[in-house]
Amino acid sequence: MDPITRTTRTKLNRLPARANYDREVIHSIIDDAIICHVAFIEDGSPFVTPTAIMRQGENVYLHGSSQSRMLQHLGLGHEACISVTHVDGMVLARSGFHSSINYRSISLFGRGHLVEGNQKIQLLNDFVDSLIPGRASDVRPMTPNEINITSVVEFPIDEASAKISVGQPSDDKKDYNLPIWAGVIPLEINSGDPIPDPQMKFPIDTPAYALNYMNGRD
Amino acid sequence: MDPITRTTRTKLNRLPARANYDREVIHSIIDDAIICHVAFIEDGSPFVTPTAIMRQGENVYLHGSSQSRMLQHLGLGHEACISVTHVDGMVLARSGFHSSINYRSISLFGRGHLVEGNQKIQLLNDFVDSLIPGRASDVRPMTPNEINITSVVEFPIDEASAKISVGQPSDDKKDYNLPIWAGVIPLEINSGDPIPDPQMKFPIDTPAYALNYMNGRD
């Protein structure tokens, strides 16, 4: 795939070596995420809202209640900025100044639109499997009313960039002589033992996709 | 402490039962966070950027390079919206419609300002200990140049709200009779074994704050 063309909004002013415009890299950072943060402007003020995200091909999708202020606004085609961020580790340098965080993030700029009809129904089912791979075939089918009161907004991955920071600290040359421990503390999201709903009326085995959730997403 | 007065921006239109305006609740959600997402408007477009966050009293602080487009903009007092989000679990309901995510989040609206002088130096040291409790006394002291080329922006916690979703799914009454597994998959961020910088020139024991990072932050 061709890399994404950079714009004034996606070009990194500082530390350009951390920037990446490869579609595969941007896709994998989105696919590893459960949620994103969406910024938009309403009544002249900036807003930012966390919400689940799903990617298919060269589009990302947000969904939720049709009453959601954010989805109503974005569905009208107002400009948005979407951020996905993974915090992968704390970087302990020999100075506070060079101490930092390892991360993988993407920024996506653009205007979305509402998806309707059969495509919306398909995407809502896909959302279940995107968030919990294997789950969609286990839940009861959607009702027409549920479909009506849920919105899906599509954004093309046109104007986007990734920013990645990885590895050990970059300390000042002379600081390497100091007797200070330096290194990286890796961070990751883990899933714990599933907690069955006490209101289940039947003995039902916990599904494999719940027992092994974070590994199953990889 | 008195709860925060709600405004049109912080009042929840939907699911108002999930909203919380208690300062203690808002503080604890911020204190559990490593990063936040900051939205702002530049040249008429929305931007959102992930960055580390620290709270002291009724203020939160962001910091970074003085060259940062975001910090320059926020330091001038332009409006911002700050979001902190913790994803605590996946909620597997008997329908896709009621499936959801457990989370704790805050939204903070306001205008910041640059902090200078001794307060800035103190805050930069505090940032090291806020992100890695116990680390500040181990790193080499900041240089005057490092202080000069770093900015700290302060935001008051005036217009803010928390939003919390916790517990088991709320399914449609008749769906409880379906033989579908339902429950919660808990999620948490864990720290792994610290990875020492291979460029250390002395044998130095890994500090306790690195060995036990996520527990030490609690």
CATH topology label of the domain at 16-87 and 102-167 in chain A: Pnp Oxidase, Chain A
The stretches of 5 or more residues of chain A where confidence is low (pLDDT under 50) are none
First-last Cα distance of chain A: 22 Å
Q: Total helix count of chain A? A: 6
Radius of gyration of chain A: 21 Å
Reading the helices and strands of chain A in chain order gives EHEEEEHEEEHHEEEEHH
Please identify the top-level CATH class of the domain at 16-87 and 102-167 in chain A: Mainly Beta
Tell me the helix content of chain A. 10-25%
Round the mean pLDDT of chain A to the nearest integer and report it.
Answer: 95
Provide the CATH architecture of the domain at 16-87 and 102-167 in chain A.
Roll
Profile the largest sheet of chain A: 7 strands, antiparallel
Strand content of chain A: 35-45%
Of all chain pairs, the largest interface belongs to: A-B, 95 and 95 residues
Q: Shape of chain A from CA axes?
A: globular
Structural class of chain A: alpha+beta
- CATH level-4 homologous superfamily of the domain at 16-87 and 102-167 in chain A: Electron Transport, Fmn-binding Protein, Chain A
Chain oligomer state: homodimer
Give a brief description.
The structure is a homodimer of 218-residue chains. The first copy, chain A, is of the alpha+beta class and 218 residues long. The first copy, chain A, contains six helices and twelve strands.
